[in-house]
Design goal:
This protein has 6 helices and 7 strands. The chain has helices at residues 13-28, 44-52, 65-71, 88-95, 106-120, 134-140, and strands at 34-37, 55-58, 77-80, 99-102, 127-130, 148-156, 159-167. The strands form 2 sheets. A 4-stranded parallel β-sheet has the order 2-1-3-4, with helices on both faces. Strands 5-6-7 form a 3-stranded mixed β-sheet.
């Protein structure tokens, strides 16, 4: 077996924009509490770097976004990740006078818009996602009418083993 070390080519534009937006918010509001609800990106070095400038990530996977919002002080700044989120959480944040910074990736947003549009037009939509991943949770919040196939990816000897389960409504 031959192992090659490749040169990193950087992040996708959605991730790069999310990182830049979070840093910009810190510069604009140097004395405000800023919280990212989840991991802005799947990269611990970036999360550590943001925390070093006072941007706290709330990455507890047990509590919902609603619970996370409710646990924060009023009048802080909340940053939503590039993955998208349940828009009902915006209402809770606004009631608590929080400033909302939405770092949703444009491609993720386009995908969510397409799902919403197709549901509104009465089309059948099936979404395939990874269990408990923020993008999947965001899609599930769009409508309970969308049959969703949820994949759980387990690894055995470094090979992915996919377990498929469905989420209501059932097929």
């Amino acid at each position: 077996m031959k192992i090659e070390i490749i040169e990193p080519i950087g992040y996708c534009s959605g991730v790069s924009n999310a990182i830049a937006k979070a840093i910009s918010v810190r510069k604009e509001f140097p004395n405000k509490s800023i919280y990212i609800l989840g991991s802005l990106v799947h990269n611990s070095h970036v999360i550590d770097s943001l925390e070093s400038i006072g941007i706290k990530s709330i990455t507890d996977s047990i509590t919902s976004l609603q619970e996370k919002i409710n646990s924060l002080e009023d009048d802080c700044i909340v940053v939503f990740t590039a993955h998208g989120h349940d828009e009902k959480v915006d209402e809770i944040a606004l009631k608590k006078r929080m400033k909302i910074i939405d770092c949703i990736c444009p491609k993720v947003k386009a995908n969510m818009t397409q799902i919403k549009r197709n549901i509104e037009e009465g089309n059948e939509v099936i979404f395939v996602g990874i269990k408990n991943h923020p993008e999947t949770l965001a899609r599930l919040s769009i409508s309970s009418k969308v049959p969703t196939i949820v994949l759980t990816i387990l690894y055995k000897n470094l090979e992915p083993q996919i377990v498929i389960s469905t989420v209501s409504p059932s097929f």
